[in-house]
Request: fold
Amino acid sequence: MKKYYIELGAIVVALLMMSTVTAVPQTHGKVVMDIVDEIEQKKDVLEEKLTEIFLDDLKLGGIIDFLIQLIILIIQLVMKIIEIVQGIMGLINLIQNLIAALTTLFQLVQSLIELIQDIFNPEPLLDF
Reply:
């Protein structure tokens, strides 16, 4: 009998846990759905604008014109990628120059420390 009570209690607890997890109050659910709707509307507007931007110059006069415009679009995309890569390479060169400058600075600081040590701890003169 005790076994049946334990099983029944486990089932009741499981059902209670499922009901609390799946139950969403109307106030919280409405707020979340409003936010989701707003995000979906913004996504749709962005998709429409991107479609207008990319297809605005596209004139469907024929397949050859379409291919020419597609090739021009690909060339423009490649040019933008080349500009980005050149910018990244410029940043890499700047970082390398900065590292070289810092290395030189550390060497100069080390030389200065050695010079200061030589001033405060001179080597004794040797008699001939």
In short: The chain has a mean pLDDT of 78.
